[in-house]
Amino acid sequence: MRRTLEEELQALVAAAAKPELIDVDQAERMLDVLGLPRVEPVILSRWWKEGDRLNMRHYPRKNASDGYNWSMLATERLYSEVAKDLRSGVDSFGFVPERGGIAYEKRKEITEVRFLKYEIDDEAMSLEAQFETWRTAGLPPPTLVLFTGGKSLHFWWRLKTPLPLEEGKVALKRLQEAIRQATPGVKLDSKMESPAQPMRLAGGIHPGTGEKSSIYAEDGRWYEAEEILRQCPEIAVKVKASGSDSLFLPEEGKPVLVGEYPEPGQLSQPVPIRLGLSKKTFELFQTGGEEGKRVASAWRISKAAQESKAMIESLGYQVTEDPLELFELFCRKSDWCGYTGGLEACKRHLATPGECGTGELSKSALRRAIRKWAEDTGQWHWKPASLRSGKGCSAKADAAEVSSNPALKVLPPGRRYEIFKRYVRWVVRFERNTLRRNVCLRHARRRLELNQLIQPPEVASLVMEAQDHRAGNSYRALSDVDRKAMAKPTVEWVINGAIPKQDLTAAVGRPKVGKTRKSIAAVKSVLTGCPFMGFEPVSTEDTVVILITDDQSAGDTAEMLEAAGIYDHPRLLWSQRFRLTEEQLDQLLNDIKNNPGAFVVVDSLRSITRSSGAKENDAEMGMLVYDLKQSVIDAGGSLMLVHHGNKDDKAIGMEAMSGHNSIAGACNTILSTHYLEDERGFPCKDSPLRRVVREARSGQGADLVVMIKPDGSFERVDSFEGFARSKVAADLQQQEVAALQKPPKPVLALIQALVQLFEEEQPHLPTLEVMKLAGLVRQTVQFKADFNKGEQSSYTTCNEWINKLIKFEMLELRPDESGQPGASRRRLYKLSQKGRDYAHSIHCGVS
Fold first, then answer.
1. Taking a C-beta distance cutoff of 8 angstroms, is the pair 517, 622 a contact?
2. In this structure, are residues 277 and 392 in contact, taking their beta carbons and an 8 Å threshold?
3. Contact criterion met (CB below 8 Å) for 575 and 627
């Protein structure tokens, strides 16, 4: 019997909740990139925590006494055996990267190092910011970068020539030091310095988040060690710290019992180093040292901080701070201990690991401090032994209980809401397809009994908040020291000043205004280097353009591309159809990854989302746009999206976009195109001129008038303000010319006299002589003072019109060079050919 849609949905959700514990294809792909083909043995591993103890099991297992005989190790990879033992939500899965075995101290199995690696261990740092750390340190591109499924990235460099063990151990430390110096304050996992450290493998599920580890980036190149180490500082080989048993002070009083403090797996945040410090030391690094004792106090602070970190880690907890951070804070509060060289000078008084010994707290005291901190931050609360479930009382345990128990009334609404928010962040990272994601979120909202408390618009808001968090759009204050240490951020461009790189630009406008032609003009600019509305492209040498024209016929697109001269361009990829589905989006992202830095143009949003069911005026459409944008950017591309405008002729820029305002919020840049208006305020649809307005977060805004040329290119004419001024001037001039068609009677008589002089080829004459010929003044008049009232009026009128005729080049002027009194101020003129034509047009000629 065929299942109903509801039954099918339940089956899909149930299947998604129980994913395969190992994606073998992903694991093998990672090993292959790292140069570990199937013909080479690989030791797989799983590990899990039980209280303070870390348990580890390897596949194949070692001999109890002899360890591993690498030459006899089979090349079969025991994924099926690991999968049988894996417990979802408990175990981690990985492998031992170095050949020989799993140890180099007790058993001399590992004798060389063929991988350099490090891990960022900072939940507050976005994946994008983590990825930039190798670039900031000036290192070559990693062979592979792995996303652990939790909060971190693993960076790998494969060495062409393996290093001897001791050299390799030093090289791993130098790599970590290079990252620390390039990104001050960055938190690294020191366990990565061990060649025997088991590493997560792609395709395994992270027990903390339930998300699979995956390849974040891959370059595939192998390096000689010197290519990497030349960018790493030299370091002194330091003595190892003492064993964990000697780290703690002796117990005093009643020891804290298991269950009375949170276990490492029950915390959702790393433990601050300061919890392992005594009250006196804690106050010291907050207030600074006394003058005369600052140097000794600096050494004591650094020693205590390193001991605290070692104590916390020995109990199995992750640490959120670096001892150097506390040392720097103390030195800053102590006026850099009186040194002019700042922190670098103070570092001479750092305690070395060899000087570190027993810390300032006992095990029970440290566990009590961690318990209080966990309760204060809401991560854990204590229950009497009779009420404990055996899984502890952490938020993660609550989430596990929720997934298996539909009766959630034991959890207060606030706790269920926090679980839902964490689930939203996980789903946004894991699921790009909006429809599938919404199914998961509706299901979770129902299971957590939050349907009445959280409405769909609030869910949409949480999703967009999670998308911002994933994109790194979160608060992080950078001090002057941070800013000096980092590379100064700059805005990069596809087309300078118009279309930013690695971001979203929207081309907006009403139907038939020229949105598609504008997008193809941008494509032509990128491919050929020609200007786009007066803006210059950054490069035309290797940028590939992916053009999607789903909103019009293939014939129309072909004609536009042919007119632009780019139909046969080798760097143009053209798709006639596209729907924003998971499968088709993956195909697009593969093309972007195969063509790094690709410029993607999609025409149009309304067309590619028609099968999604999302309505343009709902926030869900904004989420679709955010998803598409982030996917393209993550793949290394830049996006231009054609979108229809609303019906308001007066709206420009963002206000001209139709649909929900979250669509505009996803865009960095909006290029809106508009018809110009005639004198009655109606759009001039027959004119090739258009108004284009640029509103953006990056670069300067612009308000331009452009001309659409026959080849489809957009040529800048003027700024809209300048064009408006010139249009006003042209209108005034046209009005003045129109006024010349109706001269008054004295002027008609004057023009008729000028025509007679023109026909007789007479020389230039002053105004008074011309007026005599026209009969406007008496022949006996010699000076203006001799005018009667009527003659004075005619003279004033004629002079005004003479100035107008001179302005429009209808009279030829010449200075009076007779030398008579007043000659320097006298104007002589005669009619020009243009003036003769004007006289003919007003029927003022000689009969």
1. no
2. no
3. no
Joined together, the tokens standing for residue 737 give 């010319």
Does an H or E element contain 562, and which? helix 554-564
**Residue 347, helix vs strand vs coil:** helix
845 with 839: CB under 8 angstroms? yes
Highest mean pLDDT among 347-351, 373-377, 504-508, 549-553: 504-508
Q: Distance between CA 665 and CA 369 in Å, rounded?
A: 44
Task: State pLDDT tens for residues 666-689.
Answer: 899 999 999 988 777 788 888 889
What residue type is 230 in one-letter code? R
Inform me whether the pLDDT recorded for 242 exceeds 50.
Answer: no
* Residue 30 confidence (pLDDT) above 90: yes
Helix or strand (DSSP H, E) at 512: none
- 3-class SS at 546? strand
Tell me the two tokens of residue 561.
């591309």
Burial class of 834 by CB neighbour count within 10 A (0 to 12, 13 to 18, 19+): middle
What is the phi/psi pair of residue 178, to 5°? Answer: -65, -40
Q: What is the CA radius of gyration of the chain?
A: 40
Q: Given the structure tokens 């999607």, which residue do they identify?
A: 548
Whole-number Å distance between alpha carbons of 310 and 241 = 8
Question: Any bridge partners for residue 603, and if so which?
Answer: 549, 642
Q: Residue 46 belongs to what H/E stretch?
A: strand 43-50
pLDDT, tens digit (0-9, with 9 covering 90-100), for 201-214: 999 999 888 889 99
Within 690-811, residue ranges assigned H as helices are: 720-739, 745-759, 767-774, 789-807
Beta pairing, strands 599-603 & 545-549: parallel
Residue 519 and residue 513: Cα distance in Å, rounded? 12
Task: Indicate the pTM of the whole model.
Answer: 0.43
Which of 112, 227, 109 shows the shortest CA–CA distance to 162? 112
CA 68 to mean position of chain CA atoms = 47
Exposure b/e, 257-283, CB count within 10 A at least 16 = b:
eebebbbbbbbbebbbbbbbbeeebbe
Q: Tokens standing for 526? A: 């990128």
Reference 289, options 277, 299, 279; nearest CA is 299
CA distances from 358 to 53, 244, 277, 297, 354 (A): 21, 9, 12, 17, 12
Measured CA to CA, the distance from residue 771 to residue 256 in angstroms comes to: 120
| Cβ neighbours of residue 278 closer than 8 Å, sequence gap 6 or more | 304, 360, 361
Question: Residue 218, Cβ neighbours under 10 Å: how many?
Answer: 19
The model's confidence at residue 12, banded by pLDDT at 50, 70 and 90, is: very low
Tell me 106's DSSP state: S
Question: Rounded to whole angstroms, how far apart are CA atoms 766 and 756?
Answer: 15
Cβ(67)–Cβ(33) below 8 Å: no
Can you tell me which residue has the tokens 């940028």?
543
String of DSSP letters for 413-474: HHHHHHHHHHHHHHHHHH---HHHHHHHHHHHHHHTT-TTTS-HHHHHHHHHHHHHHHTT-S
Is-contact 622 666, C-beta < 8 A? yes
604 preceded by a cis bond (ω within 30 of 0): yes
Helix (H) or strand (E) holding 693: strand 689-696
Kindly report the number of other CB atoms within 10 A of residue 765's CB atom. 19
846 pLDDT higher than 70: no
Sheet containing 199-200: order of strands: 53-59, 43-50, 92-96, 199-200
Q: Cα–Cα distance between 667 and 318 in angstroms, integer?
A: 38
pLDDT at residue number 404: 43
**Alpha-carbon span 87 to 396, nearest angstrom:** 16
User: Rounded to whole angstroms, how far apart are CA atoms 637 and 545?
Assistant: 10
651 Cβ partners below 8 Å, 6+ apart? 645
**Who has greater pLDDT, 337 or 616?**
616
Closest of 694, 688, 692 to residue 673, by C-alpha: 692
Of 806, 802, 832, 828, give the one whose Cα is nearest residue 816: 828
